[in-house]
Automatic annotation (TrEMBL):
Keywords annotated in UniProt: Amino-acid transport, ATP-binding, Nucleotide-binding, Transport
Signal peptide range: none
Domain spans labelled ABC transporter: 2-240
Family matches, as SUPFAM superfamilies: P-loop containing nucleoside triphosphate hydrolases
Family per record: Belongs to the ABC transporter superfamily.
InterPro entries on file: AAA+_ATPase, ABC_transporter-like_ATP-bd, ABC_transporter-like_CS, BCAA_Transport_ATP-bd_LivF, P-loop_NTPase
Name of this chain's protein: Branched-chain amino acid transport system ATP-binding protein
Length: 270
């Protein structure tokens, strides 16, 4: 579905951000891109979504194809219309617009009113809070809700491939877990995902394949099970936290279920 070969990106003369990346994403895949600050994760997503050229002085080489079509010369809106839709880092919802207006702003890739209505129903099913808060200003939502809105807005275009840039950033562990479950659900409904994350525990739980970027190069690649077993990944990205994180995640999930039950809800109890 997505095939990247020898992707090289520079910002001006001095910064070489990517040094020849290869990546494949299958239509039923969830691929995590791990790496520390400055490794080139966001640059990779920008190159796929066509937004790289909005960054002054950027120069890209290599080949990015989606369903066989080269994306290199397409503008971001054309790439969205092909079904490749990004959720940028930092959520970037329109704070003064209502939740519903934000969702409508995301419908550019949907070809008809019927498709837009179906996409809106799907978003409301995945994120009931966005239906409850439809008329509220997006800036008043919590961080987790704004992330849900940012993902919901991307889903309004009916993506076949969703590009998520650090959806866990700045969110509490139980919210991160909820977002992780929703990403799995979106995938189960037939959307492939590229998930850029610094939170390796979350990413390895959610994805089926992963690459690790180190200063613009693919240092490791494999299934998430393989990478979770890799000593390098354990040392650098899981850092002995995997077990305690898993325990914390389980506790957070139990607390979430108790809260949901006390409100008479069972939706997140699974
Ligand atoms: N617009 C830009 N102009 C110049 N250099 C940039 C620009 N954007 C990113 N860079 C540089 O390119 C390299 C890769 O940055 P990138 O943002 O892709 O990394 P990242 O892995 O996403 O990091 P983070 O997790 O901090 O967002 C870094 O050295 C960064 O400083």
């Amino acid at each position: 579905m997505l095939s990247i070969r020898d992707l090289r990106v520079r910002y001006g003369r001095s910064v070489a951000a990517l040094h020849g990346i290869d990546l494949d994403v299958s239509p039923d895949g969830v691929v995590a891109v791990l790496g520390s600050n400055g490794a080139g994760k966001s640059t990779l997503l920008r190159a796929i979504s066509g937004t790289l050229r909005m960054h002054r002085g950027s120069i890209a080489g290599g080949d990015i194809r989606y369903d066989g079509k080269p994306l290199g010369r397409l503008d971001p809106a054309a790439i969205v219309r092909l079904g490749v839709v990004g959720v940028p880092e930092g959520r970037q919802v329109f704070a003064r617009m209502t939740v519903d207006e934000n969702l409508r702003a995301g419908g550019i890739g949907a070809r008809s009113a019927d498709l837009r209505a179906a996409a809106r129903r799907r978003v409301h099913e995945l994120f009931p809070v966005l239906a409850e808060r439809a008329k509220q200003r997006a800036g008043l939502l919590s961080g987790g809700e704004q992330q849900m809105l940012a993902i919901g807005r991307a889903l309004m275009s009916g993506p076949k491939l969703l590009l998520l840039d650090e959806p866990s950033l700045g969110l509490a562990p139980q919210v991160v877990e909820r977002i992780g479950k929703i990403i799995r659900e979106i995938h189960a409904q037939g959307t492939a995902v590229v998930l850029v994350e610094q939170n390796a525990v979350m990413a390895l739980n959610v994805a089926d394949h992963a690459i690790v970027l180190e200063v613009g190069r693919v240092a490791l690649a494999g299934t998430t099970a393989e990478l979770a077993r890799s000593e390098d990944v354990q040392r650098l990205y899981l850092g002995g936290h995997a077990e305690s994180q898993a325990t914390a995640d389980a506790e957070a999930r139990d607390a979430e279920i108790r809260r949901a039950r006390s409100r008479g809800l069972t939706r997140w109890a699974g």
